[in-house]
Design brief:
Structural class: alpha/beta
CATH class of the largest domain: Alpha Beta
Radius of gyration: 20 Å
Strand content: 15-25%
Strand order of the largest sheet: 6-2-1-7-8-10-9
CATH topology of the largest domain: Rossmann fold
Number of domains: 2
Shape: globular
Number of strands: 10
Number of helices: 10
CATH superfamily of the largest domain: Vaccinia Virus protein VP39
Low-confidence stretches: 4-9
Mean pLDDT: 92
Helix content: 40-55%
Length: 285
């Protein structure tokens, strides 16, 4: 077989927009995953990359596969959901979460944290290590939700190739490892060529399938983190999700977002920034 020629986007913009609407509707009606309120530019970027991977020319062709082949639907959902994180892959986020956990969890009796639309096991493990560094994890409940049963199973069964721990050590150092906690490997159990987070750390993590678009508030939290999924949400969906977080956040709890509140943000009056120029907010009303 010869080399695959890159897909040419020949559909007129108005036709591609209609195709995008129909594909989003098909995903919702056939599988219950609602991307209709997602930001269109992000959807088009992710789906065009998937078209090239699958050697397809149009979203209509992809829709036909989605409707009749669960494997194709799984590929689309994976492309549209939050990409999997690697440990300490975002040094800024790690530093922000370290400050957030110190500020709002230290004084709580039984603090609860929600990683909403979690980017897989390694984002959760990163936060677990940060909390363990500060002596907070043993009394903290870390609730991690993902959008599909497939992502849930992967997160629960996740392990890391042993050779990647060295790479992660460098990321850990860039994020500002706590004094006295300089070896990331100390937090892992190693079997053969695979590593997994220590049982005493994993036991503080609860995993669940949860749909930010349709599901209701399920608990009250001292810290809610949603930095990686929110950029893909359109304005109306973003407002719906922020209202959900507001209903789920304890008084004086912290909300870690992808960007700062807009000046005309309806919920902004209920929050105060914890740090200058950072999207980390304390609920004050």
């Amino acid at each position: 077989m010869g080399n695959v020629t890159p897909m040419r986007h020949e559909a007129a913009p108005e036709v591609e927009e209609l195709e995008l609407d129909l594909l989003a509707e098909a995903l919702f009606q056939r599988y219950g995953y609602d991307f209709r309120g997602h930001e269109r530019t992000a959807l088009r970027r992710k789906l065009r990359a998937l078209l090239q991977q699958r050697s397809l020319r149009t979203l209509s062709a992809l829709q036909g596969q989605v409707l009749h082949d669960p494997r194709a639907a799984s590929a689309v959902l994976r492309a549209l959901h939050v990409p999997s994180a690697t440990m300490f892959d975002d040094a800024e986020e790690a530093r922000l979460l370290r400050q957030a956990s110190t500020a709002c969890l230290s004084g709580a009796a039984l603090p609860k944290v929600w990683l909403a639309d979690c980017a897989g096991a390694e984002q959760a493990w990163t936060l677990a290590v940060l909390l363990a560094e500060q002596g907070l994890l043993a009394r903290t409940e870390l609730h991690c939700t993902v959008a599909s049963d497939e992502l849930l199973a992967e997160a629960q069964d996740h392990t890391i190739p042993l050779e990647r721990l060295a790479e992660y050590q460098a990321s850990y150092d860039r994020a500002g490892a706590a004094i006295g906690s300089t070896r990331l490997a100390d937090y892992f159990h190693i079997t053969g060529q695979r590593a997994v987070l220590l049982p005493q750390l994993r036991s503080r993590i609860s995993w669940a399938q949860y749909n930010l678009v349709t599901d209701a508030s399920f608990n009250e939290f001292n810290l809610i983190v949603c930095r990686r999924a929110l950029p893909d949400f359109g304005p109306l969906l973003r407002q719906r999700v922020l209202q959900l977080f507001h209903a789920s956040l304890a008084p004086f709890g912290l909300l870690a977002l992808d960007r700062q509140f807009d000046e005309n943000e309806a919920l902004a009056a209920f929050y105060r920034p914890l740090l200058p120029m950072q999207p980390l907010y304390k609920r004050v009303a």
